[in-house]
Amino acid sequence: MGKHRRQRSRRRGLLAPSLLTALSAVAVAAVLTGTHGLDLSDATAAGKAARSTRTAAAPAPPTGPATDPAAATQVAAPAPSASVTPTASATAAPATADPSTATPTPARGVDLGTTGPAPAEDRETGTVGALFSGALAAGNHFCTASVLHSATGNLLLTAAHCLSSTDGVTFAPGYRDGSAPYGTWQVTAIHTTAGWSQKGDVDEDFAILETAPSNGRNVEDVVGGNRLGADEPFGATVRLYGYPADSETPLLCTNTTGQQSAYQRVVHCPAYPSGTSGGPWINTATGDVIGAIGGYQQGGDTDDVSYSAYFDHTVAELYAQAETGAA
Known about the structure:
Layout: E1 33-35, E2 115-117, H1 123-126, E3 128-133, E4 141-148, E5 155-158, E6 169-173, E7 185-192, H2 194-199, E8 207-211, H3 219-223, E9 237-242, E10 251-256, E11 258-261, E12 264-268, E13 280-283, E14 289-292, E15 305-309, H4 313-326
Antiparallel strand pairs: 1-7, 2-10, 3-4, 3-6, 4-5, 5-8, 6-7, 7-8, 9-10, 9-13, 11-12, 12-15, 13-14
């Protein structure tokens, strides 16, 4: 299920029932830790997270083989955004009501959004890109990621279920029609929460990636970055980006998000299929990225409804840890 695609597979489902039988006796840290190429292919959904009343889903296996990607030539790009580190709001805490696992039905008269190609040569679009396993080639991208503003200038945001190994994984911001106009960056480390690495907690289905410099420049120096937003209201209007696995052009939809459960956002945007997992939810009012396609049902079992884990202090703490580790 969900909106992540295994390489050379068109199935929406990622998790076989046999994966849910291992790792019950593994002892791991109970605090947030960065995972650097951690293989979660045998991980299980052991128990429930402290913040969630739903059974967690197991993380996905590695995304692809360890082959060296082909790099594209860098060209001039927009200046980095003048962003700051995320701060929590005292007025936007999530509700504490019991979560519902039912796919929400839009109320009568609710705008379902309109999905179309994202504009080319746009500053914000340039911060969003495709993740590749192996060579930069049509059909070889498997998830979406976006550049986070940081002091280190080398951090990306995606869904935790997208990858568990850095082997051969590269990021191509602004990728379109087989071309990487700004170049490509090698992914070198994966940071996830203990809740995800231990239990596959869908409420913590987000990951921060480190990248190596390309031609002597960090990715944010070339394309800019989006500020991470935490504790922002559920009823925010967002621009939703994603790269379908079978398309070479990113999608964009603008719509208002809702609350699927205590720690899950939902948005109705047509035609977001496999491959769009990890795509950023950018608040139109603040410019903050407040979600990434993932979480419940690994981003959604239907193409027209997408989910994201709610961004609160947990993602803010992971960001701070990743930024420190990348310094």
